[in-house]
Amino acid sequence: MESVGNIILYFVIAVSIIVFSVLTVTTRKILRSATYLLFTLFATAALYFQMDYPFLGAVQIAVYAGGIVVLFVFAILLTQQPGKDQQQMQSTRRALALTATLLGVALTAYCLFSYANFAGKIVPQAAEFDIQTIGRFLLSTDKLGYLLPFEAISILLLACIIGGVVIARKR
Amino acid sequence: MNLTLLMYLVPSLIMFGCGVYGFLTRKNMIAIMISLELMLNAVDINFVVFNRFLFPGQLEGMFFTLFAIALAAAETALALAIIINVFRIAKKVDINEINKLKF
Amino acid sequence: MPLNFTIAVIALPLLMFLFLGLAGPKMSRKIAGVIGTLGMLVTTIIAYGVSLTYFFGDAEGQIADGVRQAVVVFNPDWLSFTKTLVVRMGIMLDPIAAMMLVVICTVSLMVHLYSLGYMCDHHGHAEKGFQRYYAFLALFTFSMLGLVVATNLFQIFIFFEMVGVSSYLLIGFYYSSPAAKHANKKAFIVTRLADLFFLVGIMILSYYTGTFDFDKLVFGPNGANSLETAGSAIASAGGQTFLGCSVMAWALTFIFIGGAGKSAMYPLHIWLPDAMEGPTPVSALIHAATMVVAGVFLVARLFPMYVIEQGAMDIICVTGAFTAFYAAAIACVQSDIKRALAFSTISQIAFMMTSLAVSSAGGNLIEIHGGTGLGYMASMFHLFTHAMFKALLFLCAGAIIHAVHSNENSDMHGLHKYMPITSFAFLIGCLAIAGIPPFAGFWSKDEILVACYEKGLGWGLWMSAVAGMTAFYMFRIYFLIFHWKEHKIHTEHAPADQPWTMTLPLIILGVISIVAGFVPAHSLVTWDGAHLHTQLNWTVAGTSVAIACVGIGLAYRMYFRENNLPQRMADSCRGLWTAAYRRFYMDELYQFITHKVIFQSICKPIARFDRAVIDGFFNLLARASRSAAYGIRGFQSGDTQSYVFVYYIGAIALALATIICVAL
């Protein structure tokens, strides 16, 4: 049995994820869309905190909310006139997209709920890892070490920096 | 009342659905990128949730999410650079007007 | 000279061909010609050395049981079909091969030398394509030499094709002239058709005997032609018959058809007169002296088998006798001197064929088969002498054509005064071919006639008559060119004897034509390698000389001075004259059969089927895939979101399919 506070927290997070996600893709103003995305990402970070992954939650806020959304806002401000509404697709096309999306969601939901016996019963088990452990895992070369992907990501980020500079520079 | 696996997967599913819908209906390329971030985020949640509920003693799901976030950051940075470049050349970021890459 | 120098005889012309063909365009025309001629001179000297060694040397392994045996110089495997059926590429010397080496090299050298002068315009500048001409001459010489020294039927076939190709290339040397193009196509197609029969014959023969090699087919243990070997080869067919004839008779007949195509026997002769479109020295080399006797050589090569299969031999005999008369009749009325000489060539080759066919094996089997093998020797002897005097006649004709720039004898007349050396050489050639002693043709033709009389009185009389016609038409040509009336000078250049490069070969060949008859052929080129005792048959010799003199006299009466007798004779039997002039309508008959019968009723429907059904099917495929592509290219719209949509729908469909499969 979970504590009531935890349950309330869960519902707050779940509802905000759902609402802000829907708003992100339905609002006509692109800057608002980015803002709603920020809220969604915050809610996700909260979810990570609730599940006892504080490091991940911190990364989520720092990288996603702090980095990516800011990038989005920059890009939007560089390319859009503020306050202008986005044009919408033709309604037939939107209806088609909505149908396809609902179809996919329904299909996945059917799969999920067909496992409801299992998935509806299982509860989280506590297991705390401190930052030190995570750091050791990240930089170890053991069987469960992540040094290689870590370095690969480093190189990828470097490539990405150079690529970004090359692509966006003025000719 | 327990907080079960299913309860965490449903918001993630809806988030993913929103991402798909946004991807298919938005015209602005930046908005499409935003939808893409939604989908990525939904997948991240799934990794973490399964890690917590099925293998609480291990950290694989968390690390996957960690790297996925890094990848997402890299990908977004590049995509936005491309979009800005396209805007510089074509003076627009609407995806249905940038359609010269065809037969 | 060691016999393995024969390799050099074969290899030198090939090297000359490669050298002139590749490096020729880089050097000046004259130098290419001189190099080609010098190469041929060296080849000729080596060939003479080898032949003399073969005929007169007595080194070990050359003579066995008192006969000169075939010497295989080298014979490596080339293609092995089965363990026993192997195609080899080798060099073999036997009497006829050694003789052919001399013939080919002599005539080829003369032609090389002569062409230095002939292939020039009247300013003395070498013509365009001079290097190519010499390269092709070298290729032809190589192919012909390879043919005569072949150790097996398959090698002969390969070189048969190669001489065909070089003949094609040289006939079409002036490829900008439509007549030359048509002539070389005609020559190639007709001989190729005949070669198809040759190939079928080879296949039948090798299927039953399991070998291509002459030393298993015709040569006995002592290395000379042997009836026992040939008999056992024929017996390997096990007496099987096809349409009432033994399969071996069929095989040998097919092989003869291949030879008949090259040797221009009726009815496959139609290509040879047209082949005169090529340069005249080429006609002398290929279409008078060497390539056209390849068929005779082929029959002589398999002679023991033909002797046993008398059915095939009878076909050769009838074909040869008829062709000799037919071609002689046409030669009597032709106005183009090269055409007349071409028909004369056909007639003379038919003489050789007939002589081979009337011959029966002599030697130790004289009791069984009768006869003495005289015809074989006579045929080979005539091949030798004919090559010399016919090359002489063609080279003379070339000199005349070069001087007056025309092939028609109506443009010549009375050239004796202007070109005495040429006139004299031509006269020697005419006397030789007419069979007047002591010129070369007398001796060989006399042997042929004796062989024919041995076969039967009818054959003898027929061939004697043809010999008379030969004398008549040759002297008709001679008188029409050099006498008849005064030459009317069209240009300021009066015709004259040509430069020494052209005159020297005439003199050399003229001398050879006088003395070649004294070559002791009866002890050198007999069918079994043994010495053949011959003596001049005074009755036959006297008759043939008398007939020849009658022919010459008639020609003198009709053509020596301008008169209207030939015109009156032509008018009195206009139909016959026209028919002969139009070569008895053989070309028209071929034209009719190929165009009206084969093209119209066979090829046209096949072509229509090909276009409508075969092409139609593939066009349909192409059109279907094109319209399909047009239909689906809209998918690649450049609209990214529709790509994503399709991808997404696909993913859903896949998931759905998986779920349904799991649920079932």
Which helices and strands occur, and which strands form pairs?
The complex is a heterotrimer of chains A (about 170), B (about 100) and C (about 675).
Chain A: H1 4-26, H2 30-50, H3 54-79, H4 91-114, H5 116-119, H6 131-139, H7 147-168
Helix pairs in contact in A: 1-2, 2-3
Chain B: H1 5-25, H2 29-54, H3 60-90
Helix pairs in contact in B: 1-2, 2-3
Chain C: H1 6-23, H2 29-56, E1 63-64, E2 67-68, E3 71-74, E4 77-80, E5 86-88, E6 91-93, H3 95-118, H4 130-148, H5 153-171, H6 178-209, H7 214-217, H8 227-235, E7 241-242, E8 245-246, H9 247-262, H10 271-274, H11 280-289, H12 294-301, H13 303-308, H14 310-331, H15 337-358, H16 366-369, H17 374-404, H18 420-434, H19 440-455, H20 457-482, H21 500-515, H22 521-524, H23 538-559, H24 565-572, H25 574-581, H26 586-632, H27 640-663
Antiparallel strand pairs in C: 1-2, 3-6, 4-5, 7-8
Helix pairs in contact in C: 1-2, 1-4, 2-3, 2-4, 3-4, 3-11, 3-17, 3-21, 4-5, 5-6, 6-9, 9-12, 9-14, 11-17, 14-15, 14-20, 15-17, 15-19, 15-20, 17-18, 17-19, 17-21, 18-20, 18-21, 19-20, 19-23, 20-23, 24-25
Can you offer a commentary on this structure?
The complex is a heterotrimer of chains A (171), B (103) and C (664). Chain A has 171 residues and is mainly α. Chain A has 3 domains: 1-86, Four Helix Bundle (Hemerythrin (Met), subunit A), CATH 1.20.120.1200; 89-122; 128-171. Chain A is built from 7 helices and no strands. Chain A starts with a helix and ends with a helix. In chain B, helix 1 (5-25) packs antiparallel against helix 2. The longest helix of chain B has 31 residues, at 60-90. Chain B is an all-alpha fold and 103 residues long. Chain B is 76% helix and 0% strand. Chain B contains 3 helices and no strands. Residues 362-370 of chain C have low confidence and may be disordered. Chain C has a two-stranded antiparallel sheet. Chain C has 27 helices and 8 strands. Chain C starts with 5 loop residues before the first helix and ends with a helix.
